[in-house]
Protein backbone atom coordinates (compact mmCIF):
# COMPACT_ATOMS: atom_id res chain seq x y z
CA UNK A 1 0.00 0.00 0.00
CA UNK A 2 1.34 3.43 -0.91
CA UNK A 3 2.25 5.81 1.91
CA UNK A 4 -0.35 8.39 0.80
CA UNK A 5 -3.11 5.78 0.97
CA UNK A 6 -1.93 4.63 4.38
CA UNK A 7 -1.95 8.17 5.72
CA UNK A 8 -5.43 8.82 4.36
CA UNK A 9 -6.72 5.69 6.06
CA UNK A 10 -5.04 6.65 9.35
CA UNK A 11 -6.70 10.07 9.21
CA UNK A 12 -10.07 8.47 8.52
CA UNK A 13 -9.67 6.02 11.40
CA UNK A 14 -8.60 8.73 13.85
CA UNK A 15 -11.44 11.01 12.78
CA UNK A 16 -14.18 8.41 13.04
CA UNK A 17 -12.98 7.12 16.38
CA UNK A 18 -12.69 10.65 17.69
CA UNK A 19 -16.36 11.23 16.96
CA UNK A 20 -17.32 7.95 18.61
CA UNK A 21 -15.31 8.81 21.71
CA UNK A 22 -16.95 12.21 22.05
CA UNK A 23 -20.42 10.69 21.76
CA UNK A 24 -19.72 8.11 24.46
CA UNK A 25 -17.75 10.18 26.95
CA UNK A 26 -20.50 11.62 29.13
CA UNK A 27 -22.33 8.38 29.85
CA UNK A 28 -19.55 5.81 29.91
CA UNK A 29 -16.83 7.70 31.72
CA UNK A 30 -18.97 8.90 34.59
CA UNK A 31 -20.58 5.49 34.81
CA UNK A 32 -17.11 4.00 35.33
CA UNK A 33 -16.30 6.71 37.86
CA UNK A 34 -19.32 5.97 40.03
CA UNK A 35 -18.75 2.22 39.90
CA UNK A 36 -15.03 2.41 40.56
CA UNK A 37 -15.39 4.71 43.55
CA UNK A 38 -17.77 2.24 45.14
CA UNK A 39 -15.48 -0.71 44.45
CA UNK A 40 -12.40 0.96 45.91
CA UNK A 41 -14.18 2.09 49.06
CA UNK A 42 -15.98 -1.21 49.58
CA UNK A 43 -14.64 -3.50 52.34
CA UNK A 44 -14.98 -6.38 49.89
CA UNK A 45 -12.63 -4.76 47.37
CA UNK A 46 -9.43 -6.68 46.73
CA UNK A 47 -6.00 -5.07 47.01
CA UNK A 48 -5.62 -5.49 43.26
CA UNK A 49 -8.65 -4.43 41.28
CA UNK A 50 -8.24 -2.88 37.85
CA UNK A 51 -10.50 -4.37 35.22
CA UNK A 52 -8.54 -2.60 32.47
CA UNK A 53 -5.20 -4.17 33.43
CA UNK A 54 -3.86 -6.81 31.04
CA UNK A 55 -1.08 -8.07 33.32
CA UNK A 56 1.01 -9.67 30.60
CA UNK A 57 4.24 -10.73 32.26
CA UNK A 58 6.46 -9.83 29.29
CA UNK A 59 4.63 -6.69 28.19
CA UNK A 60 7.34 -4.28 26.95
CA UNK A 61 4.87 -1.39 27.32
CA UNK A 62 4.44 -1.90 31.06
CA UNK A 63 6.53 -1.06 34.10
CA UNK A 64 6.40 -2.90 37.41
CA UNK A 65 5.48 -6.40 38.57
CA UNK A 66 2.26 -8.10 37.50
CA UNK A 67 1.40 -8.75 41.15
CA UNK A 68 1.69 -5.11 42.22
CA UNK A 69 -1.30 -4.17 44.41
CA UNK A 70 -2.07 -1.11 42.27
CA UNK A 71 -2.19 -0.87 38.47
CA UNK A 72 -2.21 2.46 36.66
CA UNK A 73 -3.37 2.27 33.05
CA UNK A 74 -2.57 5.38 31.03
CA UNK A 75 -4.29 6.36 27.78
CA UNK A 76 -1.97 8.76 26.02
CA UNK A 77 -1.01 10.49 22.78
CA UNK A 78 2.58 11.33 21.86
CA UNK A 79 1.47 14.70 20.46
CA UNK A 80 -0.40 15.71 23.62
CA UNK A 81 1.41 18.43 25.63
CA UNK A 82 -0.31 17.36 28.85
CA UNK A 83 0.84 13.77 28.31
CA UNK A 84 4.36 15.13 27.93
CA UNK A 85 4.00 17.07 31.16
CA UNK A 86 2.97 13.91 33.01
CA UNK A 87 5.88 11.99 31.49
CA UNK A 88 8.44 14.61 32.45
CA UNK A 89 7.15 15.81 35.82
CA UNK A 90 5.09 13.08 37.47
CA UNK A 91 5.85 9.66 36.04
CA UNK A 92 9.51 9.58 37.18
CA UNK A 93 8.44 10.25 40.76
CA UNK A 94 5.76 7.56 40.63
CA UNK A 95 8.31 5.11 39.24
CA UNK A 96 10.81 5.88 41.98
CA UNK A 97 8.28 5.87 44.80
CA UNK A 98 5.94 3.05 43.80
CA UNK A 99 7.07 1.05 40.75
CA UNK A 100 10.61 0.45 42.00
CA UNK A 101 9.24 -0.72 45.36
CA UNK A 102 6.80 -3.19 43.80
CA UNK A 103 3.67 -1.27 44.79
CA UNK A 104 2.62 -0.03 41.35
CA UNK A 105 2.45 -1.30 37.80
CA UNK A 106 2.04 1.13 34.89
CA UNK A 107 0.53 -0.08 31.62
CA UNK A 108 0.55 2.08 28.50
CA UNK A 109 -2.34 2.38 26.05
CA UNK A 110 -2.27 4.32 22.79
CA UNK A 111 -5.02 6.88 22.32
CA UNK A 112 -3.98 8.84 19.20
CA UNK A 113 -6.52 11.65 18.92
CA UNK A 114 -4.50 14.35 17.16
CA UNK A 115 -4.49 13.04 13.61
CA UNK A 116 -2.28 10.95 11.37
CA UNK A 117 0.99 11.88 13.08
CA UNK A 118 -0.42 10.62 16.38
CA UNK A 119 -1.26 7.30 14.74
CA UNK A 120 2.22 7.05 13.25
CA UNK A 121 3.78 7.86 16.61
CA UNK A 122 1.72 5.13 18.27
CA UNK A 123 3.00 2.66 15.69
CA UNK A 124 6.53 3.96 16.27
CA UNK A 125 6.25 3.30 19.99
CA UNK A 126 5.26 -0.27 19.30
CA UNK A 127 8.06 -0.65 16.78
CA UNK A 128 10.49 0.47 19.48
CA UNK A 129 8.83 -1.93 21.94
CA UNK A 130 9.55 -4.84 19.59
CA UNK A 131 13.23 -4.04 20.04
CA UNK A 132 13.05 -3.60 23.81
CA UNK A 133 13.26 0.21 23.78
CA UNK A 134 9.67 1.29 24.35
CA UNK A 135 10.09 3.37 27.49
CA UNK A 136 13.33 4.89 26.23
CA UNK A 137 11.55 5.96 23.03
CA UNK A 138 8.51 7.13 24.99
CA UNK A 139 10.57 9.39 27.24
CA UNK A 140 12.68 10.78 24.43
CA UNK A 141 9.59 11.78 22.45
CA UNK A 142 8.02 13.50 25.44
CA UNK A 143 11.28 15.13 26.47
CA UNK A 144 11.38 16.93 23.12
CA UNK A 145 7.69 17.87 23.19
CA UNK A 146 6.73 21.56 23.38
CA UNK A 147 5.05 22.92 26.50
CA UNK A 148 2.18 24.14 24.35
CA UNK A 149 0.70 22.90 21.11
CA UNK A 150 1.19 19.55 19.47
CA UNK A 151 4.59 18.09 18.66
CA UNK A 152 5.47 17.67 15.00
CA UNK A 153 6.13 13.95 14.68
CA UNK A 154 6.88 13.25 11.06
CA UNK A 155 8.39 9.92 10.12
CA UNK A 156 11.78 11.62 9.94
CA UNK A 157 11.42 12.98 13.47
CA UNK A 158 10.25 9.60 14.77
CA UNK A 159 13.31 7.97 13.23
CA UNK A 160 15.56 10.49 14.94
CA UNK A 161 13.82 9.89 18.26
CA UNK A 162 14.30 6.14 17.80
CA UNK A 163 17.98 6.70 17.14
CA UNK A 164 18.29 8.82 20.28
CA UNK A 165 16.42 6.17 22.28
CA UNK A 166 18.90 3.51 21.25
CA UNK A 167 16.62 1.42 19.04
CA UNK A 168 19.22 -0.98 17.63
CA UNK A 169 17.81 -1.84 14.19
CA UNK A 170 16.60 1.38 12.60
CA UNK A 171 15.87 -0.26 9.26
CA UNK A 172 13.50 -2.67 10.99
CA UNK A 173 11.96 0.27 12.85
CA UNK A 174 11.37 2.15 9.59
CA UNK A 175 9.83 -0.90 7.96
CA UNK A 176 7.38 -1.28 10.84
CA UNK A 177 6.51 2.40 10.64
CA UNK A 178 5.86 2.19 6.90
CA UNK A 179 3.54 -0.80 7.16
CA UNK A 180 0.11 -1.30 8.71
CA UNK A 181 1.20 -4.36 10.69
CA UNK A 182 1.06 -2.60 14.07
CA UNK A 183 -2.14 -0.68 13.39
CA UNK A 184 -4.56 -3.35 14.75
CA UNK A 185 -2.89 -3.20 18.17
CA UNK A 186 -3.28 0.57 18.20
CA UNK A 187 -6.93 0.19 17.19
CA UNK A 188 -7.47 -2.27 20.05
CA UNK A 189 -6.25 0.35 22.53
CA UNK A 190 -8.53 2.96 20.98
CA UNK A 191 -11.52 0.64 21.26
CA UNK A 192 -10.67 0.00 24.90
CA UNK A 193 -10.55 3.75 25.51
CA UNK A 194 -13.91 4.17 23.79
CA UNK A 195 -15.36 1.52 26.09
CA UNK A 196 -14.58 3.64 29.17
CA UNK A 197 -15.40 6.96 27.51
CA UNK A 198 -11.87 8.38 27.48
CA UNK A 199 -12.28 11.36 25.15
CA UNK A 200 -9.11 13.31 25.89
CA UNK A 201 -5.54 12.65 26.89
CA UNK A 202 -4.09 11.78 29.23
CA UNK A 203 -6.62 9.63 31.04
CA UNK A 204 -5.59 7.28 33.83
CA UNK A 205 -7.37 4.35 35.44
CA UNK A 206 -5.88 3.51 38.83
CA UNK A 207 -7.44 0.34 40.21
CA UNK A 208 -10.63 1.28 38.35
CA UNK A 209 -10.66 4.87 39.62
CA UNK A 210 -10.39 7.37 36.74
CA UNK A 211 -8.10 10.39 36.86
CA UNK A 212 -8.39 12.85 33.99
CA UNK A 213 -5.55 15.09 32.86
CA UNK A 214 -1.99 15.76 34.00
CA UNK A 215 -2.95 16.30 37.62
CA UNK A 216 -0.39 17.29 40.28
CA UNK A 217 1.67 14.54 41.84
CA UNK A 218 -0.27 14.64 45.10
CA UNK A 219 -3.48 13.65 43.28
CA UNK A 220 -1.85 10.46 42.00
CA UNK A 221 -0.26 9.77 45.38
CA UNK A 222 -3.63 10.13 47.09
CA UNK A 223 -5.38 7.73 44.72
CA UNK A 224 -2.55 5.19 44.83
CA UNK A 225 -2.36 5.29 48.62
CA UNK A 226 -6.13 4.83 48.88
CA UNK A 227 -6.03 1.92 46.43
CA UNK A 228 -3.46 0.12 48.60
CA UNK A 229 -5.72 0.09 51.66
UniProtKB/TrEMBL annotation:
InterPro entries: Thioredoxin-like_fold, Thioredoxin-like_sf, Thioredoxin_domain
Keywords, alphabetical: Disulfide bond, Membrane, Oxidoreductase, Redox-active center, Signal, Transmembrane, Transmembrane helix
Domain of life: Bacteria
PROSITE patterns xref list: THIOREDOXIN_2 (PS51352)
Domain Thioredoxin: 36-229
Gene3D superfamilies assigned: Glutaredoxin
SUPFAM superfamilies linked to this entry: Thioredoxin-like (SSF52833)
Membrane-spanning ranges: 12-30
Annotated GO MF terms: oxidoreductase activity
Family stated for the protein in its record: Belongs to the thioredoxin family. DsbA subfamily.
PANTHER family on file: DISULFIDE BOND FORMATION PROTEIN D, GLUTATHIONE S-TRANSFERASE KAPPA
Protein name in UniProt: Disulfide bond formation protein D
Originating species: Mycobacteroides salmoniphilum
Amino acid sequence: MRRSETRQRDIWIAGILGVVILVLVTYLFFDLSSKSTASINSPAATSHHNSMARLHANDPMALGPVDAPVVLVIYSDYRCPFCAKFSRDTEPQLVERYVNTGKLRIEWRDLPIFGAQSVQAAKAGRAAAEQGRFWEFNRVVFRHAPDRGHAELTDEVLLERAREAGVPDLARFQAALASDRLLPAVQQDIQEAVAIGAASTPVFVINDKPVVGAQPLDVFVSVIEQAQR
